[in-house]
Amino acid sequence: MTDTDLIPAPLTARTGGDAPGRPSLDERTTLDAGPGTEATARWLRSVLGAATGLPLADGAGPHAVRLRISPETAREHGPEGYRLSTEDPEAAVTIDGGGPAGLFWGAQTLRQLLGPDAFRRAPVRPGAEWDLPRVTVADRPRFGWRGLLLDVSRHFTAKEDVLRLLDLMAAHKLNVLHLHLTDDQGWRIEIERYPRLTGVGAWRSRSKQGHRASPLWDDTPHGGFYTRDDIREIVAYAAERHVTVVPEIDLPGHSQAAIAAYPWLGNADVVDTAALTVWDTWGVNPNVLAPTEEVLRFYEGVLEEVLELFPSTFVHVGGDECPKDQWKESPAAQARIAELGVGDEDGLQSWFIRHFDRWLADRGRRLIGWDEILEGGLAEGAAVSSWRGYRGGIAAAEAGHDVVMCPEQQVYLDHRQDGGPDEPVPIGFVRTLSDVYRFEPVPPGLSEAAARHVLGTQANVWTEVMENRDRVDYQVFPRLAAFAEVAWSALPAPGDRDTEGFLRRMETHYRRLDALGVAYRPPAGPTPGQRRPGLLGRPIDGPPPIV
Q1: Which reaction does it catalyse (predicted)?
Q2: Is 509 a known active-site residue?
Q3: Which end is more exposed in the chain, N or C (fewer Cβ atoms within 10 Å of the end residue's Cβ)?
């Protein structure tokens, strides 16, 4: 390991040259935790203490890890910025955070500087000294929204694995977990006033194996959901790691699981909604919500409970892939279009989104949705997750709306990492580790005023082909490390990323992932245990156009 093998790369890292000796942590090391730093001190004791075997007792002095919230650092680098130094004669390590989050990110950098063994759950060198380079790091994030979407609807992720993912996100300085909680294939959050949403909507009879064109099926019933207490635990665990959890409740499309639970939510005048079950395959589903006041009241009730559990400013309402065929055929929907004066079916979808934009704003929250919410007119104050390339994000930002860039062509991590025949489920199109590293969230040519509306960026993990934790690990890592650097690290100049240097630093980072037990895709390709011969072969879906 070299002195600056940090991922994501910091703003600056000045090494101490050839000064004699190296600072280290050992049995004498204490934690000197200033006001407001107690949470990071607890994290250091629980994580670094477990990995190193060091007690890290309270105390000041030349052997201490000194933690401070620094107004000067806040002025220079903002609340998520920090300054770390191992060259302070009054402490072994000093971390000054611009705020509690910045201090915590500095602690993550300290962990990396101690070497890959500092990422283990138990000490491999009890009682040993842990050497540090002589270095001063000054750092801050490029974007305030550094996100990861986890789809828990297509395949349910156990609470314990969500908590583990939060730890992995924190290790990469990511700060938004977007939980995709509802879809056609499953409803994953307990709503007390509507118990059938989980009693019926959380369970399907079977699942497609592979992508939607696959002829293979897993006939094992699949399901699960998070109780209200589970959600409270996830949100609290995330908050301790300075990660915000943004919930997504899909509407008006991607709603078959809800309609299966409460058939009156659907367009019963054109389809037998009472016969619908939770969907067992993938793709775009034709069954969408009926445009009635009763449906609005239902989802207001859902969102009231969601707001109780999630303090996030933003609430995601989906809004994507909403086929309009049922509304076109439904006399009730057509009468609603005329009554509301919204013109057509696109206007009807806009009516849905605008209603919940106002409803959330009245409660001090903000609506965010996929870029289809631009169709029929974008609600004032709504933000956009731009997934169909850059185009929707550009249009929204130029119109003064905030944007999170997550184009499928660059940062959909369900797509394969290599073009070879050994990929476990070779769907989509190839995006390698280097491809993700070269992703630029701010499109070239975006005006300066519009660029200020780019809140940040997000990688999306859709789980149709990820039925367990190892499959998620394989698809997400190591590409999440590349994405984390894109989201965090400043660019010296537009398009100026040192891919060769990043890949060199990844040689150390793979050892950190090994220590964390991450089943990532190795650089040389999948191991025999990661291959799934029944699903190998030509990709099922061709690449979409780059837009």
Answers
A1: Hydrolysis of terminal non-reducing N-acetyl-D-hexosamine residues in N-acetyl-beta-D-hexosaminides
A2: no
A3: C
Q: Can you read off the two tokens belonging to residue 515?
A: 């220590």
Largest CA distance in the chain: 83
What is the DSSP track for 482-501?
Answer: HHHHHHHSPPSSTT---HHH
Name the CA radius of gyration of the chain, rounded.
24
User: Which whole-number Å values give the CA distances from 377 to 31, 83, 134, 319, 488, in the listed order?
Assistant: 54, 44, 55, 13, 32
- Catalytic residue, candidates 155, 254, 401, 509: 254
Return the minimum-mean-pLDDT range out of 12-21, 274-283, 428-437, 538-547.
538-547
Is the N-terminal amide bond of 252 cis, ω within 30° of 0? yes
Element (H, E) at 179: strand 176-180
- Among 139, 183, 402, 435, which one carries the catalytic annotation? 183
Q: Minimal CA–CA distance to 331: which of 376, 285, 267, 273? A: 267
Mapping DSSP to helix (H, G, I), strand (E, B) and coil, where does residue 110 land? helix
Quick one: DSSP state of residue 521? P
Cα distances from 98 to residues 36, 107, 138, 239, 534, in angstroms, run 11, 13, 11, 17, 52
For the full predicted model, state whether its pTM sits above 0.90: yes
Question: If we measure between CA atoms, which residue out of 194, 159, 442 comes closest to residue 300?
Answer: 194
Active site residue 183: yes
List, in sequence order, every residue forming a beta bridge with 534; answer none if it has no partner. none
CA-based nearest residue to 530, from 491, 452, 488, 473? 473
Cis preceding linkage at 55, omega within 30: no
Contact 251, 318 (CB under 8 A): yes
Residue 537 has pLDDT above 50, yes or no: no
- Report, in this order, helix, strand and coil percent for the chain, each rounded to 5: 35, 20, 45
Cβ neighbours around 58 below 10 Å, total? 11
What is the structure's pLDDT at 20?
59
Catalytic residue among 280, 321, 344, 418: 321
Distance in angstroms (rounded) separating the CA atoms of residues 472 and 152: 11
User: Crossing angle of helices 331-340/345-361, nearest 10°?
Assistant: 60
Question: Bridge partners of 318?
Answer: 251
Do 41 and 67 touch, CB atoms closer than 8 A?
yes
Contact 107, 44 (CB under 8 A): yes
Q: What pLDDT digit, counting tens, does each position of 10-52 carry? A: 999 998 755 556 799 999 999 999 999 999 999 999 999 999 9
State the Cα–Cα distance between residues 146 and 115, nearest whole angstrom: 25
Domains along the chain?
12-139 (3.30.379.10), 145-491+510-535 (3.20.20.80)
Alpha-carbon separation of residue 342 from 193, 297, 299, 384, 516 (angstroms): 31, 20, 21, 21, 53
